[in-house]
Design a protein that fits this description.
Elements lengths: L1 H11 L14 H14 L3 E4 L10 H8 L1 E5 L3 E2 L5 E7 L2 E8 L3 H20 L8 E5 L3 E3 L4 E11 L2 E5 L11 E6 L4 E3 L4 E6 L4
Length: 200
């Protein structure tokens, strides 16, 4: 699922996505596959294998192949993400390792993959966030920056967001509220940054 989703997101940004075979949980196989992909591509994206389990070999493979710029992000969802630079024969190519969870992979690709795309390939940049007005109080307890699913509707040119008991990103009116680091109470009527579902 992740490979086709990320390919579609790459192509929506104007790139050409190339799919490679799914790999076993073997560090040597992962390293060789990444080397092979860099021969053909300007950027390599992986999904999965970035947590701290015994079979999460991708994080070790990318550390051997590239110079890691950062590993893990203080966001929810999407903490197990890493970015590195593959350097060989005078060329420098980006490597982005995403989480295996599909919503986390989509979010982290949009946040970090989009920034890499703009920087390395000199593409135009459109700020990804808009403002929405909360229709209810919202208490945030998570210490990390949090991207929280909400329902959103547009009224007289203004976006309004509400938090249902259950919501999924694929629902037609779903979006993501962007809640800053640290716990606090967001009050009804407060303006909060928002990522619209159709961006993905």
């Amino acid at each position: 699922m992740n490979n086709h989703m990320i390919k579609a997101m790459v192509e929506k940004m104007g790139g050409e996505g190339v799919l490679y075979a799914l790999l076993p949980d073997n560090q040597e196989s992962i390293e060789q596959a990444i080397y092979n992909a860099f021969r053909d591509c300007d950027m390599v994206i992986t999904t999965g294998g970035m947590s701290k389990g015994d079979l999460d070999h991708t994080q070790h493979a990318i550390a051997n192949i590239s110079e890691i710029a950062f590993k893990y992000a203080r966001i929810k969802p999407g903490k197990p993400v890493a970015y590195g630079i593959y350097a060989k024969d005078g060329t420098h190519k980006p490597l982005l390792a995403l989480p295996g969870n599909p919503p986390s992979a989509a979010l982290t690709f949009y946040l970090f993959g989009h920034a890499i795309w703009v920087h390395f390939f000199e593409k135009p940049y459109t700020p990804p966030f808009i403002q929405a007005i909360l229709e209810q109080d919202l208490e945030k307890k998570e210490a990390r920056m949090e991207f929280k699913t909400c329902h959103v509707h547009l009224k007289e040119g203004v976006y309004y967001a509400s938090i249902p008991k259950r919501s999924h990103l694929h629902e037609s009116e779903s979006a993501l509220l962007v809640l800053e680091e640290g716990g606090r109470l967001y009050k009804q009527g407060e303006a909060v940054p928002l990522l619209l579902h159709h961006i993905f």
